[in-house]
Amino acid sequence: MAGVDFFRHGGLPVPQVTIQEAERIAASFFPGRTVRAQPLGSQQDSNFLLTEPAGAVAGVLKIANPAFSAAEIQAQDAAAELVAAAGLRAGTVRHGPVTVPVDGGPALARVLTYLPGGTLAGAGRYLSPRVVAGLGTVAGQVSRALRSFTHPGLDRVLQWDLRHAPRVVDTLAGHVGDEELRGRVTAAAAAAWSRVEPLAGQLPGQTVHGDVTDDNVVCRVARGVRTPDGVIDFGDLTSSWAVGELAVAITSVLRHAGAEPCSVLPAVRAFGELRPLSAAEAAALWPLVVLRAAVLVVSGEQQAALDDGNDYVTGALEHERNLFDRAMSVPADVMTGLILAELGLGGGPLPVPSGVVPDLGPNLGPNLEHCAVLDLSVQSDAVDEGAWLEPGLEDRLAAALLADGHDAVATRFGEARLTASTVLTGVSPATVATGIDLWLAARVEFPAQLTVSGDGTRVHVSLPAEGAPEVPPLVRPEYAAGWLSLVADPAPLLGLPAASPPATDDLLNRREASFAAVQEHYYRDPPRIERGWRHHLAATDGRVYLDMVNNVTVLGHGHPRVEAAVARQLRRLNTNSRFNYASVVEFSERLAGLLPEPLQVVFLVNSGSEAVDLALRLALVATGHRDVVAVREAYHGWTYASDAVSTSTADNPNALSTRPPWVHVVDAPNSYRGRYRGSESVRYSGDAVRAIGELAASGRPPAAFLAEPFYGNAGGMPLPDGYLAAVYAEVRRHGGLAIADEIQVGYGRLGHWFWGFEQQGVVPDVVMVAKAMGNGYPLGAVVTSRAIAARYRDAGYFFSSTGGSPVSSVAGLTVLDVIRDEGLQANAARVGGHLKGRLEELAVRHSLIGAVHGSGLYLGVEFVRDRGTLEPATEETAAICDRMLELGVIIQPTSDRMCVLKIKPPLCLDVAGADFFADALDRVLTEGW
Fold first, then answer.
1. Are residues 284 and 391 in the same domain?
2. Which of 471, 449, 464, 434 lies closest to 354, judged by CA?
3. Domain end residue (candidates: 460, 494, 528)
4. Looking at residues 708-732, what average pLDDT do you find?
5. What distance lies between CA 655 and its chain's CA centroid?
6. Is the pLDDT at 608 greater than 60, yes or no?
7. Is 29 part of a structural domain of the chain?
8. Is the preceding peptide bond at 358 cis, omega within 30 degrees of 0?
9. Residue 797 has what pLDDT?
10. Residue 87: is it exposed, middle or buried by C-beta count within 10 angstroms (0-12/13-18/19+)?
C-alpha cells in the first residue's frame, strides 16, 4: 500500500510544531519577508495562519502528519486544483511542498491559499436551512468534480472512510471511559452496519474529499449573511462510497445550535439535485450518519489521549457526544423514510394488508356499524373559540357522540390534530396521528394484526410494519412522512373507511397561478395558516405560532363576541347606509364620542386606503387648494390619492420618483437615524414649517399636511416633542387642514393614549381610522368637523356600498365594547411596558440592536451593523424573522431599510407571550440566524 494505513499506525498524533518553528519554516517560503504564525486547530496535521506585520494574510502553513506519503499529498493538491477548476473556492497550494523535520519524523510542509470569509464551524452557532442547503450544494459540487479523479495517492486506509467504520469503532471503543456511552456507541454502530452491509454492493464508489463538514466549508459573507462557496483541507481524500460525502457533511450539521435530524434535509435535497441518489444510497444514508457519529466519538476520545493538551480535540469531545445523541434521537427507519420522501423515492403510509377483513369474525363489524368520525384538525368546527386548549376535549366530544347513539367514535389516521398542540413552544409538538383512537359503546375484539392499547373504552389502534420500531400515537409533523412510512391505516381492518391519502400541498402554486403576484406572502416557505385564536395562529400541521404582527385583529383572532354579533346581524339584515337603521347611528355616535371637539361627524368606508383618499378629497374641497404636504418614509394606502402621499420606498421602490407634482415631502422626523438626532430632533419641525411657508409663498398653499401622529413605518417611533403643534399651526395659517393618520396607531395600541395625536397634545382637523375598527372585518372611517364635512357637498355626494352597513357597524360597536370591557388599552400599556423593558435589556447584551422604539404594543427593534454608523442590518433582519418562525414566532421587518422588527400584536397579548417573544429573540441573537 502506497499510503497510510490507520489500523497499522493505530493513531495519528498531531506533529508538535511550535510557533517559532512554524515561523522558521514559513520564512523559507517567503524570503526577505516577516511572517507571523498563529496556530489553527487540527486533528492530525499541524496548521498555522500566516500573516504579515500589516495584517495581510500570506496563506495557511500546513505541516502534514509524518505518516502521509508524498503521493498522498500530491493527490490532495491535485484534487484541490480540480475542485477549484469546477468553480468552488478551494485551498490550493501556493508554495511547496518541502520536507521539514518534526517530532514524528520528516513531514511535508506547504503553504495553501487562504480563503477569507470563515467556515461554518462553531457548535454553538445556528445553521439556517439556506446555509444547510448550501453545505449540501458544496458537497454535491465536490462529488461531481472528483467523480472521475484517480491517483496513486488514494491507495490508503483512513479511519474516516465509512467503509471501515465498524472496525474503527471496535478498535477505538476502549478509549471511551464512560461505560454506558461506550455501550451505546458500539451497539449503534453494529446496528447501523447491519443496515449498510446488505446495500454495500449497490453503493457506487469514487474519490471523495471525505471531510466536507462545517469545519472545512468556507463561506462568502455579504451584508451579514453567509453563503457556503468553498472547501478546504483535503487531508481525508480517499476512494470510498460516493454517498459517504453527503453522510459526512450532514452529520456535521447535528452539532449546531437548534439542530436535529430533520435539519439535514435541505442538504440532502441540494446534494441530490446535483448528484442524484439511488434508492440504495438513500436507504444507506442515515445508517452512515450514525456510523460517522460513532466514529467521531471513539476517535475523539483516542485523539484526546494521544494529544494531551490539544484544545481543538478536547474541546470537541462534548460536541461529538451531543452529535451522536442527536443522530440516535430518531430511529433510522424513520429517517430513511423521511429521506426517501424528501428525494421523491418513496414515502406515504404502508398499504393495508389484503385478505384480512373477511376473517374479522362477527364481533367487530356490527359494533362499529354506526361509527362517527371525529375531526380534530385545525379546520374542525369542534375546536372553535380556543376549545382545543381545553384538557379532555377529545373525550368530551366522543362522549357526546356516543350519547347520541353511535356505536363508536373514531379519529382519522394521519391527521394533524390541533387538540394535541400547545402554545408558546419553540419546538413543534407531536400532532400527527399514526393510528386511530376509538371510543366504544361496548367492548370489541380486535384482529391480531392490530396493535391496540387503552382501557377498553378508549383504545388506540395502529398497524405498524413488521420489525418497525415502537411507533408513538402522535408524531411531530417534521417527521410524519418517516413515521407514516412504517404504518398502515388500520381503519379498513375495522370496517371503517380509509383516510384520504395526504394531498400534495400545492397551495402556493395555485396562489401564484390565480392571485396577482404583487400581493406577496410572508416567508419563502410559509406555513399554511387556517386558524387564529387570541394572539396565536395555527397551521394545518398543528403548529401554533405567536402572532406579533397582526395589528388589524386588535382584540385577537376569532373573538367570539365579534363572531356572534356579525353572524346575528347577517341573519337579520345587511344593506347599505341609505336605509334607516340604528347600528350605523350608534356606531357613528360612539366613534365621534371618543374624539375631542370639533371632531363630530363620521364618514364610514371599507378600508384605510379609502379613508385616506376621502380625507384628502375633503381637504381639497374644503380649502380650495390643490397641494398636499406629506412626510418621507410613510405608507398611507394603495388607492391613487393614498398612494400618491405614500413615500415609503419599502412599499414602493419608486415612491419618491413617481410622486405627482401636487405632493410635497418633508423630512422624516426620525430622531434615531435622521438628519437631526437626539435633542437636535426638535429642528425637524422648523424645517417642515419653512417648507410649508415656502410652498405658500410660491402661490401653492397646501390643502393639508398629512402624517401619522406616531411614526409607524419607521418602526413605532414617537415624533419629536412639539412637532405636530408647530406644523399644524403653520399649515392652518395658510388655510390648510391637519390630517392625522390613526390607521395603525389608534384604538388604544399605544397604551397610554387611545389616539396617537394625544401624545403630541394636538387636535387634528381630520382623523382617519381603519384596521383595528372591525377586528379584521373591513371597516374604516374619516372623522372631521361639521363645517368641513358640510363642504363635501360642493363636490357632490358620498356613498360607500358597505361602509356603514349594519354588519360593519355592529362589528365596529362590538370592537369598542370589547376594548373597554377587556381593558385592552390598559393591557397594551402594561404588557407593552414589560416587553419594551425586556427588549431594552437585550439591547445591552446584543450589539446588533441599535434601538428599541415605541409605546404600548406598537414597538420596533432596529438592527444595525454598527452603532456608530447606524448601517442598517437589512439582510440580518430578514434572516432573524425566518429563524423566529422556526421557534414559533411570526414577526416581520419594516422601515425603508427593512431593518426594524415591527411589533404590533393583538392587544390581548399577555406577559407570557411577551416573554416568549423576548426569549426567542434572545436565543436567535445568541445562536445566530
1. no
2. 449
3. 494
4. 94
5. 29
6. yes
7. yes
8. no
9. 85
10. exposed
Question: DSSP characters for 797-831?
Answer: ----SSTT-HHHHHHHHHHHHHHHHTTHHHHHHHH
Model confidence pLDDT, tens digit, residues 169-203: 999 999 999 999 999 999 999 999 999 999 999 99
Give the pLDDT confidence score for residue 358 in this predicted structure: 33
Which grid cell is 205?
464508489
Predicted pLDDT of residue 730: 98
Among 720, 711, 668, 664, residue whose Cα is nearest residue 692: 664
Pairwise CA distance, residues 1 & 16, whole Å: 26
361 & 259 share domain: no
The percent of residues in the chain predicted with pLDDT above 90, rounded, is: 83
Q: Which of 456, 458, 494, 487 lies closest to 472, judged by CA?
A: 487
Tell me how far apart the alpha carbons of residues 191 and 202 are, in angstroms, rounded to a whole number: 19
Give yes or no: residues 719 and 754 share one domain. yes
Residues 739 and 782: beta-carbon distance below 8 Å: no
Bond from prior residue into 492 cis (ω within 30 degrees of 0)? no
What cell numbers appear for 829 in the block?
400599556
Q: What are phi and psi of 381, to 5 degrees?
A: -65, -20
Task: Give the pLDDT confidence of 502-513 residue by residue, as tens digits.
Answer: 667 788 888 988
Q: Is the pLDDT score of 485 beyond 60?
A: yes
CB-based contacts of 355, cutoff 8 Å, min separation 6: none
C-alpha distances in angstroms, 433 versus 328, 377, 491, 504, 542? 22, 11, 13, 18, 11
Q: What is the pLDDT of residues 5-20, one digit of tens each?
A: 999 987 778 888 999 9
Distance CA 778, CA 789 (A): 23
Count the Cβ atoms, other than its own, within 10 Å of residue 309: 8
Q: Cell numbers of 801, please?
A: 356600498
For residue 85, give the 3-state DSSP assignment: helix
- Whether 810 and 846 map to the same domain: the answer is no
915 membership: H or E segment, kind and range: helix 911-927
Q: Name the residue with cell 413552544.
A: 425
Containing domain of residue 606, as a range?
A: 560-821
Domain co-membership, 362 together with 301: no
Flag whether 276 is in a domain: yes
Phi, psi of 813 (to 5 degrees): -65, -45
Residue 505 inside a domain? The answer is: no
Q: How many domains does the chain have?
A: 4
CATH of the domain at 738: 3.40.640.10
Answer whether residue 369 is part of any domain.
yes
CB atoms inside a 10 Å sphere around CB 323: 25
**Which residues in 685-831 belong to E strands, given as ranges?**
702-707, 710-711, 717-718, 737-741, 766-769, 780-784
- Neighbour count for residue 700 (Cβ, 10 Å): 16
